[in-house]
Structures are given as C-alpha cells and as structure tokens.
Amino acid sequence: MLPHLSTALHAFVYTARLGSFAAAARAIGVSPAAVGQAIRRLEDDYGVKLFTRTTRKMALTLEGELLLDRVRQPLAELEQVGHVIKESRGIASGALRIAAPTEFGRKKLVPLVADFNKRHPLVTIELDISDSIRSFIDDQVDVPSGWQQS
To answer: Boundaries of each HTH lysR-type domain copy (predicted)?
Structure first.
C-alpha cells in the first residue's frame, strides 16, 4: 500500500502547489485523470474533501491544508533518497532551477537546456529568463543570474 500512498500524496502535493489536476499531471508525467483518481482515493481513505473545486479554480480545504503541511517535508525527503540512489548509479534526476538574463537565456541557455534534457530526462529544469536579480534563498534558484543577500 505504501507505494500507492506515496504516489497519491505526490499527486496531492503537486496539485496543491500548481492549482490543477492538469498542471500536476504534466509535472509528474501522468494523465489528469490519474491525478484526479489519486486525489479521490486519498479523500476516500481519509473521509474528507481535500480541495474545493469549481469550474474555474481549486482551493485546499482546511483538511487539505493540514495534510499538505504534514506531508510536504517527508515526501521531499523520500524524493531526495530516490535522487541519491539514482545518483549512486550514475543517473541524474531531480529539479534544477536556473535564472538568467533575457538575452543570455534565449541565445545560450535554451539550446543547452534542450540538449541537456535529452541526455538527462529525469532532471526537470525550471528556466526563469528575465533581467531581474535573483536571490538564492528568496527565489529558490539553484543557478541565479546574479544574487543579492537576503
């Protein structure tokens, strides 16, 4: 049961963070229906609604907020264990957040990111191309275009 619970909780966390089943599905590489089914399974298991849904938006219920607060850190730690195991086998995985100035990002980084993704499909790259200065801590950027102390 634990692998299914872990999968359902990941779907829940991504849905809460991204605001829709479709966005969560894209992020974790499954169908929106699979994300919806995972959320329904959690709701059935816990006997509560985790999201209020309308045709235009989703929001966490109080129970959903409680669950999100309690599972976010343990799931992040489980993901980290998976990354460490994959890295020990020479497989790069995980998320990489890069901020770059507009011109440099468009001309140099975009082609490199596409090539990198082909070689390392388990690495998710979030590329923020803008001319604003980023902070390592405040913006949660792994590779900033410049930095300022927070």
So the answer is: 4-61
